[in-house]
Amino acid sequence: MADNYLEKRYDEVFGKKTVIRRVGHTLDELLTRNRSTRGYNKDFVVSEDMLRQIVSVNTKIGSGCNRQVLRFKLVTKDTGADKVLQNIKMGAALPELHLPFPGTEPEAFIIVCSTAGDDKLALIDLGMSLQTMSLRAVEMGLNTLIVGAFNKTKICEAFDLPFDPLAVLCVGKGNERFQIVPIHADESHAYYRREGVHYIPKVRLEELEL
Ligand SMILES: Cc1cc2nc3c(=O)[nH]c(=O)nc-3n(C[C@H](O)[C@H](O)[C@H](O)COP(=O)(O)O)c2cc1C
Protein backbone atom coordinates (compact mmCIF):
# COMPACT_ATOMS: atom_id res chain seq x y z
CA MET A 1 0.00 0.00 0.00
CA ALA A 2 1.37 3.42 -0.95
CA ASP A 3 2.63 5.68 1.77
CA ASN A 4 -0.19 7.74 3.31
CA TYR A 5 -2.79 5.87 1.21
CA LEU A 6 -5.30 5.67 4.02
CA GLU A 7 -4.79 9.28 5.02
CA LYS A 8 -5.21 10.47 1.40
CA ARG A 9 -8.30 8.28 0.93
CA TYR A 10 -9.75 9.65 4.19
CA ASP A 11 -9.21 13.19 2.90
CA GLU A 12 -10.93 12.34 -0.42
CA VAL A 13 -13.97 10.81 1.28
CA PHE A 14 -14.39 13.08 4.30
CA GLY A 15 -12.58 16.22 3.23
CA LYS A 16 -9.28 17.51 4.62
CA LYS A 17 -8.96 17.14 8.38
CA THR A 18 -7.96 20.10 10.47
CA VAL A 19 -5.58 18.69 13.03
CA ILE A 20 -4.54 21.02 15.83
CA ARG A 21 -1.49 19.48 17.44
CA ARG A 22 -1.06 20.47 21.06
CA VAL A 23 2.54 20.76 22.05
CA GLY A 24 3.17 21.21 25.77
CA HIS A 25 0.87 23.51 27.71
CA THR A 26 -1.82 25.80 26.37
CA LEU A 27 -1.51 29.51 27.08
CA ASP A 28 -4.54 29.25 29.35
CA GLU A 29 -2.87 26.54 31.45
CA LEU A 30 0.32 28.56 31.72
CA LEU A 31 -1.58 31.70 32.70
CA THR A 32 -3.60 29.87 35.35
CA ARG A 33 -0.47 28.33 36.87
CA ASN A 34 1.42 31.63 36.65
CA ARG A 35 0.52 32.85 40.13
CA SER A 36 2.59 35.24 42.23
CA THR A 37 4.38 32.81 44.53
CA ARG A 38 5.75 33.84 47.92
CA GLY A 39 6.69 30.41 49.29
CA TYR A 40 9.23 28.05 47.72
CA ASN A 41 10.58 24.55 48.21
CA LYS A 42 14.22 25.11 49.13
CA ASP A 43 15.14 21.48 48.35
CA PHE A 44 14.93 22.50 44.71
CA VAL A 45 17.94 24.61 43.76
CA VAL A 46 17.53 26.93 40.78
CA SER A 47 20.73 27.00 38.74
CA GLU A 48 22.22 29.92 36.84
CA ASP A 49 21.53 28.01 33.63
CA MET A 50 17.81 27.83 34.46
CA LEU A 51 17.76 31.58 35.04
CA ARG A 52 19.53 32.03 31.70
CA GLN A 53 16.85 29.95 29.95
CA ILE A 54 14.23 32.23 31.48
CA VAL A 55 16.07 35.40 30.43
CA SER A 56 16.46 34.02 26.88
CA VAL A 57 12.81 34.90 26.11
CA ASN A 58 14.03 38.49 25.86
CA THR A 59 15.72 37.69 22.55
CA LYS A 60 12.29 37.08 21.01
CA ILE A 61 9.82 39.56 22.50
CA GLY A 62 8.71 42.99 21.32
CA SER A 63 10.34 46.20 22.46
CA GLY A 64 9.29 49.86 22.02
CA CYS A 65 11.20 51.22 18.99
CA ASN A 66 13.12 47.93 19.32
CA ARG A 67 15.49 49.72 21.69
CA GLN A 68 15.98 46.63 23.89
CA VAL A 69 17.15 48.62 26.89
CA LEU A 70 16.66 45.91 29.52
CA ARG A 71 19.60 44.11 31.10
CA PHE A 72 19.48 41.22 33.54
CA LYS A 73 21.52 40.25 36.59
CA LEU A 74 21.22 36.56 37.44
CA VAL A 75 21.49 35.79 41.15
CA THR A 76 21.53 32.26 42.60
CA LYS A 77 21.91 30.82 46.08
CA ASP A 78 25.69 30.90 45.67
CA THR A 79 25.98 34.34 44.12
CA GLY A 80 24.21 36.65 46.56
CA ALA A 81 20.58 35.53 46.98
CA ASP A 82 20.69 36.60 50.64
CA LYS A 83 21.55 40.17 49.58
CA VAL A 84 18.47 40.33 47.36
CA LEU A 85 16.17 38.75 49.93
CA GLN A 86 17.09 41.34 52.59
CA ASN A 87 16.03 44.14 50.26
CA ILE A 88 12.67 43.04 48.83
CA LYS A 89 9.15 43.21 50.26
CA MET A 90 6.58 40.47 49.78
CA GLY A 91 2.87 40.24 50.42
CA ALA A 92 2.23 43.81 51.59
CA ALA A 93 -1.53 43.06 51.58
CA LEU A 94 -0.99 40.38 54.25
CA PRO A 95 1.33 42.18 56.74
CA GLU A 96 0.32 39.92 59.65
CA LEU A 97 1.82 36.88 57.87
CA HIS A 98 5.32 38.39 57.44
CA LEU A 99 5.85 36.56 54.15
CA PRO A 100 7.82 34.63 53.16
CA PHE A 101 7.45 32.03 55.91
CA PRO A 102 10.83 30.98 57.36
CA GLY A 103 12.29 28.11 55.33
CA THR A 104 10.32 28.98 52.19
CA GLU A 105 12.29 32.01 50.97
CA PRO A 106 13.16 32.34 47.27
CA GLU A 107 16.86 31.73 46.55
CA ALA A 108 17.14 32.72 42.89
CA PHE A 109 16.46 36.10 41.35
CA ILE A 110 16.60 38.02 38.11
CA ILE A 111 17.22 41.73 38.66
CA VAL A 112 15.91 43.66 35.67
CA CYS A 113 17.75 46.90 34.90
CA SER A 114 17.27 49.55 32.23
CA THR A 115 19.95 51.39 30.29
CA ALA A 116 17.38 54.12 29.57
CA GLY A 117 15.94 54.83 33.04
CA ASP A 118 12.22 54.38 33.55
CA ASP A 119 10.70 56.17 30.57
CA LYS A 120 7.34 55.02 29.22
CA LEU A 121 8.69 52.60 26.63
CA ALA A 122 11.17 51.08 29.08
CA LEU A 123 8.34 50.42 31.55
CA ILE A 124 6.17 48.81 28.88
CA ASP A 125 9.14 46.66 27.85
CA LEU A 126 9.63 45.80 31.52
CA GLY A 127 6.06 44.51 31.90
CA MET A 128 6.29 42.44 28.75
CA SER A 129 9.63 41.01 29.80
CA LEU A 130 8.53 40.11 33.33
CA GLN A 131 5.33 38.43 32.16
CA THR A 132 7.05 36.48 29.41
CA MET A 133 9.86 35.36 31.73
CA SER A 134 7.26 34.24 34.29
CA LEU A 135 5.45 32.18 31.67
CA ARG A 136 8.71 30.56 30.58
CA ALA A 137 9.45 29.72 34.23
CA VAL A 138 6.01 28.12 34.61
CA GLU A 139 6.59 26.16 31.42
CA MET A 140 9.82 24.86 33.06
CA GLY A 141 7.85 23.76 36.15
CA LEU A 142 8.98 26.75 38.21
CA ASN A 143 7.17 29.72 39.71
CA THR A 144 7.93 33.40 40.11
CA LEU A 145 7.07 36.60 41.92
CA ILE A 146 7.44 40.03 40.37
CA VAL A 147 8.74 42.44 43.00
CA GLY A 148 8.42 46.18 42.52
CA ALA A 149 8.91 46.97 46.22
CA PHE A 150 12.64 46.74 46.79
CA ASN A 151 15.50 48.89 48.04
CA LYS A 152 16.99 50.17 44.80
CA THR A 153 20.07 51.75 46.37
CA LYS A 154 21.01 48.69 48.43
CA ILE A 155 20.50 46.27 45.50
CA CYS A 156 22.50 48.54 43.20
CA GLU A 157 25.35 48.69 45.72
CA ALA A 158 25.30 44.99 46.58
CA PHE A 159 25.78 43.93 42.96
CA ASP A 160 27.63 46.97 41.66
CA LEU A 161 24.96 47.39 38.98
CA PRO A 162 25.86 49.79 36.16
CA PHE A 163 22.19 50.54 35.39
CA ASP A 164 19.01 51.33 37.34
CA PRO A 165 17.18 48.24 38.60
CA LEU A 166 13.45 48.47 37.81
CA ALA A 167 12.17 45.17 39.19
CA VAL A 168 13.21 41.88 40.74
CA LEU A 169 11.85 38.51 39.64
CA CYS A 170 11.99 35.77 42.30
CA VAL A 171 12.28 32.28 40.83
CA GLY A 172 11.86 28.89 42.47
CA LYS A 173 9.77 25.78 42.86
CA GLY A 174 6.61 27.04 44.50
CA ASN A 175 4.93 25.23 47.40
CA GLU A 176 1.73 27.27 47.60
CA ARG A 177 -1.90 26.51 46.68
CA PHE A 178 -3.88 29.07 44.71
CA GLN A 179 -7.42 29.78 43.70
CA ILE A 180 -8.58 32.54 41.37
CA VAL A 181 -11.87 34.10 42.51
CA PRO A 182 -14.01 35.91 39.88
CA ILE A 183 -15.22 39.23 41.30
CA HIS A 184 -17.23 42.28 40.27
CA ALA A 185 -15.19 45.39 39.53
CA ASP A 186 -16.51 47.18 42.65
CA GLU A 187 -15.54 44.35 45.04
CA SER A 188 -12.27 44.21 46.98
CA HIS A 189 -9.28 43.30 44.84
CA ALA A 190 -7.14 42.35 47.86
CA TYR A 191 -5.71 38.84 47.84
CA TYR A 192 -6.29 36.76 50.97
CA ARG A 193 -5.50 33.36 52.53
CA ARG A 194 -7.78 30.80 54.13
CA GLU A 195 -6.68 27.41 55.41
CA GLY A 196 -3.44 27.51 53.48
CA VAL A 197 -4.99 28.52 50.15
CA HIS A 198 -4.06 31.87 48.57
CA TYR A 199 -7.11 33.44 46.89
CA ILE A 200 -6.65 35.96 44.07
CA PRO A 201 -9.69 38.04 43.06
CA LYS A 202 -9.91 38.76 39.32
CA VAL A 203 -12.50 41.01 37.66
CA ARG A 204 -14.89 39.11 35.40
CA LEU A 205 -14.49 39.36 31.64
CA GLU A 206 -17.93 40.95 31.16
CA GLU A 207 -16.83 43.88 33.32
CA LEU A 208 -13.52 44.42 31.57
CA GLU A 209 -15.09 45.36 28.25
CA LEU A 210 -16.02 49.02 27.75
C1 LIG B 1 4.40 45.34 38.55
C2 LIG B 1 4.17 44.39 39.71
C3 LIG B 1 4.80 44.62 40.90
C4 LIG B 1 4.61 43.74 41.97
N1 LIG B 1 5.29 43.94 43.14
C5 LIG B 1 5.13 43.07 44.17
C6 LIG B 1 5.90 43.21 45.36
O1 LIG B 1 6.74 44.10 45.50
N2 LIG B 1 5.71 42.28 46.35
C7 LIG B 1 4.81 41.25 46.23
O2 LIG B 1 4.68 40.45 47.15
N3 LIG B 1 4.05 41.10 45.10
C8 LIG B 1 4.21 41.97 44.08
N4 LIG B 1 3.49 41.80 42.91
C9 LIG B 1 2.56 40.68 42.80
C10 LIG B 1 1.09 41.14 42.89
O3 LIG B 1 0.76 41.34 44.24
C11 LIG B 1 0.22 40.04 42.23
O4 LIG B 1 0.43 40.09 40.84
C12 LIG B 1 -1.26 40.22 42.53
O5 LIG B 1 -1.50 40.01 43.90
C13 LIG B 1 -2.13 39.25 41.73
O6 LIG B 1 -1.72 37.90 41.93
P1 LIG B 1 -1.33 37.00 40.72
O7 LIG B 1 -0.02 37.53 40.16
O8 LIG B 1 -1.18 35.62 41.25
O9 LIG B 1 -2.41 37.13 39.68
C14 LIG B 1 3.71 42.65 41.83
C15 LIG B 1 3.09 42.42 40.61
C16 LIG B 1 3.32 43.26 39.55
C17 LIG B 1 2.66 42.95 38.22
Give the full name of the CATH homologous superfamily of the largest domain. Answer: NADH Oxidase
State the oligomer.
Answer: single chain
What order do the helices and strands follow? Answer: HHHEHEHEHEEEE
Report the uncertain regions: none
Helix content: 25-40%
**Which overall shape is indicated by the principal axes computed on the Cα atoms?**
globular
Strand content: 15-25%
Q: What is the CATH architecture assignment of the largest domain?
A: 3-Layer(aba) Sandwich
CATH class of the largest domain: Alpha Beta
Q: What structural class should be given to the helix and strand makeup?
A: alpha+beta
- Strand order in the sheet with the most strands: 1-2-4-3
Q: Give the distance, in angstroms, between the N- and C-terminal Cα atoms.
A: 59 Å
Q: Main sheet?
A: 4 strands, antiparallel
Mean pLDDT: 93
* CATH topology term of the largest domain: NADH Oxidase
How many domains? The number is 2
Number of strands: 7
Features of the shown structure:
binds flavin mononucleotide, 7 strands, 210 residues, 4-stranded antiparallel β-sheet, 3-stranded mixed β-sheet, alpha+beta, putative fmn-dependent nitroreductase like fold, NADH Oxidase, 2 domains
Tell me about this structure:
With 210 residues, the protein is α+β, with helices and mostly antiparallel strands. The chain folds into 2 domains: 26-175, 3-Layer(aba) Sandwich (NADH Oxidase), CATH 3.40.109.10; 176-210, putative fmn-dependent nitroreductase like fold (Single Sheet). Helices cover 28% and strands 21% of the residues. The chain has a 4-stranded antiparallel sheet with strand order 1-2-4-3, with helices on both faces. β6 and β7 (197-203) form a beta hairpin. The protein starts with a helix and ends in a 7-residue tail after the last strand. The mean pLDDT is 93. The site of flavin mononucleotide has 13 residues, from β3.
